[in-house]
């Protein structure tokens, strides 16, 4: 009966060489004909519906035409970042990193990067929770987020040898009800050497950009830039899942926070204890747990500079009563935001600690 079996369907691999080389035909219509998924400073992301029953939608990213009219030099910089991001993405293959589809030019001759399309970003999810006064992101979703992003960072830092360079909630995309989380926006990523650091002496053109609100302390002190910078920024993303606002803005006026979120949006306490920290991260020495930005617009940075302390660990909101489910989340927030880079866990230690906790919970 073998000859009467149902023929197997040949599936097209979206990461195939044909797609990676940008050979698949794609016509990018004018922006009014596409739904806007998000935006950042000078960049827009649209949803492109493709013809055919089996064709999933793509997210299309390109520099804003408005920026081209106002500031051609800035427009050229943004466009170059999109081309650079395409070159990086086509080399990356990981389930927790947004998938590359193709790069082409739109009807106006502007470079347009087509990527896998996700439902929304973590940043937008947290904005809605804040507006509706829903409290911190549920622990089960936060743990899923942390595990997925940590696996992506582990791959970037150890296999791809890349510093993402701009980890924040708006660069974490979410599919479904936290079925899977994916990192996006690699336009300012930097190469890492064998020690996990950026060798600026080797290439004088390299520059750390990042976003001030999420940047690590060493980026402000001419310190050594390396994979631990991503870890610090990741710790501030964990903070966002609890506070529901960008780091260092909890005491800032609500109107200023909304302005900040509009600039940044590009989509795409207690409870811990020393014994648990030592168990999950045995190589990290006991540290003092004292509570010690994509580009934010220059005017907003200046208006908030007196109130904010960039590159530090923000205090957690005191109004929330956390259940035991949040213990490891808060531990990771504290560990990732240690001031000294070597006191921070690496990405592999982060996702492995969550897996150990999961195994322990299931065995009880």
Notes on the protein architecture:
This protein has 364 residues and is an alpha+beta fold. It folds into two domains: 31-116, Phosphorylase Kinase, domain 1 (2-Layer Sandwich), CATH 3.30.200; 120-249 and 310-362, Transferase(Phosphotransferase) domain 1 (Transferase(Phosphotransferase), domain 1). Helices cover 35% and strands 12% of the residues. The chain contains eleven helices and ten strands. It has helices at 17-20, 65-70, 72-89, 122-131, 139-160, 227-243, 254-264, 274-280, 298-304, 327-336, 347-363, and strands spanning 35-40, 43-48, 58-63, 100-105, 111-116, 120-121, 162-163, 172-175, 180-183, 190-191. The protein has a five-stranded antiparallel β-sheet. Helix 6 (227-243) crosses helix 10 (327-336). The N and C termini lie far apart (49 Å).
- Give the name of the CATH superfamily of the largest domain: Transferase(Phosphotransferase) domain 1
Give the integer mean of the pLDDT values.
77
In the residues, how many domains can be counted?
2
Shape: globular
Percent helix among the residues? 25-40%
Biggest sheet strand order reads 1-2-3-5-4
Radius of gyration: 21 Å
Give me the number of helical elements.
11
Low-confidence stretches: 1-12, 14-24, 29-34, 260-303
Distance between the termini: 49 Å
What is the element string, with H for helices and E for strands? HEEEHHEEEHHEEEEHHHHHH
CATH top level class name of the largest domain: Mainly Alpha
Biggest sheet: strands, sense, closure? 5 strands, antiparallel
Strand count: 10
Architecture per CATH nomenclature, i.e. the level-2 architecture of the largest domain: Orthogonal Bundle
């Amino acid at each position: 009966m073998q000859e009467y079996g149902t023929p197997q369907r040949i599936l097209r691999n979206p990461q195939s060489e044909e797609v990676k080389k940008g050979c698949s035909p794609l016509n990018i219509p004018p922006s009014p004909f596409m739904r806007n998924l998000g935006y950042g400073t000078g960049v827009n992301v649209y949803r492109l519906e493709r013809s055919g029953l089996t064709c999933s939608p793509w997210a299309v990213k390109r520099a804003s035409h408005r920026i081209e009219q106002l500031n051609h030099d800035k427009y050229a910089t943004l466009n170059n970042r999109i081309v650079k991001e395409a070159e990086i993405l086509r080399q990356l293959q990981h389930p927790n990193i947004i998938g590359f589809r193709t790069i082409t030019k739109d009807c106006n001759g502007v470079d347009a990067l087509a990527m896998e399309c996700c439902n929304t970003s973590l940043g937008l999810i947290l904005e809605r929770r804040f507006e509706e006064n829903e409290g911190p992101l549920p622990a089960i979703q936060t743990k899923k987020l942390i595990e997925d992003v940590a696996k992506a960072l582990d791959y970037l830092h150890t296999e791809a040898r890349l510093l993402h360079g701009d980890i924040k909630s708006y660069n974490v995309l979410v599919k479904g009800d936290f079925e899977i989380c994916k990192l996006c926006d690699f336009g300012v990523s930097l190469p890492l050497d064998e020690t996990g650091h950026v060798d600026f002496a080797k290439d004088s053109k390299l520059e750390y950009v990042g976003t001030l609100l999420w940047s690590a302390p060493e980026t402000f002190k001419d310190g050594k830039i390396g994979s631990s910078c991503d870890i610090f920024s990741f710790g501030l993303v964990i903070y966002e899942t609890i506070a529901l606002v960008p780091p260092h803005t909890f005491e800032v006026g609500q109107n200023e926070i909304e302005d900040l979120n509009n600039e940044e949006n590009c989509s795409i306490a207690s409870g811990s204890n020393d014994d648990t920290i030592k168990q999950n991260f045995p190589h990290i020495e006991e540290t003092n747990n004292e509570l010690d930005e994509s580009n934010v617009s220059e005017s907003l940075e200046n208006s908030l500079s007196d109130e904010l302390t960039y590159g530090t660990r923000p205090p957690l909101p005191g109004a929330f009563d956390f259940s035991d489910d949040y213990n490891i989340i808060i531990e990771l927030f504290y560990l990732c935001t240690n001031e000294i880079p070597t006191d921070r866990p690496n990405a592999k230690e982060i996702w492995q600690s969550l897996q150990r906790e999961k195994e322990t919970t299931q065995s009880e």
